[in-house]
Amino acid sequence: MHEMGLCFELMSTLDDLLKREGVSHITSITLDVGEASMVVPRFLLDCWEAAKADTPYKDCSLKLNLTKAHGRCRQCGFVFAIAENDRKCPKCGSMDDFDTIDGTEFEISEIETDDN
Amino acid sequence: MDKFKVISVKESVFSHNEKRAEELRNFLKGKGVYLLNVMSSPGSGKTTLLVSLINKLKDQIKIAVMEADIDGALDAETISEKTGVKTIQLHTNGACHLDAEMTKEGLDGLGIEGFDLVILENVGNLVCPAEFDTGAVSSLNILSVPEGDDKPLKYPLMFKVCSTFVFSKIDTLPYFDFSIDQAKENILRLNSKARFFPVSAKTGEGIDDLATYLLGLVKTYKEE
Known about the structure:
The structure holds two protein chains of two kinds.
Chain A: H1 2-21, E1 26-34, H2 41-51, E2 61-67, E3 70-73, E4 79-81, E5 98-102, E6 106-113
Parallel strand pairs in A: 1-2
Antiparallel strand pairs in A: 1-6, 3-4, 3-5
Helix pairs in contact in A: 1-2
Chain B: E1 5-12, H1 15-31, E2 34-40, H2 46-57, E3 63-69, H3 74-83, E4 86-91, H4 100-110, E5 117-121, H5 128-131, E6 138-144, H6 151-154, H7 156-161, E7 164-168, H8 180-190, E8 195-198, H9 207-223
Parallel strand pairs in B: 2-5, 2-6, 3-4, 3-5, 6-7, 7-8
Helix pairs in contact in B: 2-3, 2-9
């Protein structure tokens, strides 16, 4: 599954990050997940539970901060929320004719540690 | 002191792989080896196209191939049998993509010394391989006529990360509602620098143009 691969990559990036920050144990991670990032939040949360078993992250919880994706209409230039408007420009009615301007992020926003 | 400390990060989840990919690109540059990452959906004709392409190019540059599949060694055997170039089969053991570390291990196993072009045939999949930078110098996508010209609309990231686009199986154009112009338009919306090559590995149409273009890419890269 796509989200499983993402969980393993997340752990590799966390390994680098913890080393760089001098942190030994983290209790939670918050990710920014854009609506247009191709990540399914529910699958990601399920995969995290399975992926973290038997790793240094086994007691680390995953929190997702979901962000909306916006598009700029190619016909009239209007900026609108893509999912809410079912991919249709609410101003001129153009269907599926926009450039995605945000909501593609898949980032680690913050980590929480109980290190003293 | 608080029991918990929060550290603000704002870093891509893919940053571990992105660093490895950049290291690999620098390593390859030092060796003068052009790594081309070939991606598409399963059944687009990657292996058949590579056989035609390699047979056109192999007398002019030294080529090796890495085949990445979830299982099986069929593709490596086909390439090796029909072209005679050095080939290695990589198994991802269930993973749907290859990352930069796996690519480096594959290159080490292959032995790249003396090669001009290494072609990586990635796992057939339009989702995950697009997210994981392999460390290749550039990526080529194959979109076959039976798949339809709407694929760029459905899998946008794949069509953003590649720079060379091959429309394969054009000998079947009379039987499908595939418009080359529509496919180009759909890709150009995502990727204004895209280059297009309609080909048929069966009839040989378009293979010369693609071979000449790739030869140019490799030569420019080695002279830089």
